[in-house]
Design goal:
Layout: no helix or strand
């Protein structure tokens, strides 16, 4: 996405990647943030 202030929808989050030419595209780059693990939480039915 190249549009400043574009609001990313929840269903689009998994499609976000770094540009092919970006140094951050390398997973071993020291400044690249670590991917967060998503934890799915089930709601208990009462």
């Amino acid at each position: 996405m190249r549009v400043p202030s574009y609001l990313v929808r929840k269903e689009e989050e998994d499609k976000i990647t770094y540009s092919y030419s970006s140094p951050l595209n390398d997973e071993m780059h020291p400044m690249r943030p670590k991917a967060e693990e998503k934890i799915l939480v089930k709601k208990e039915e009462t």
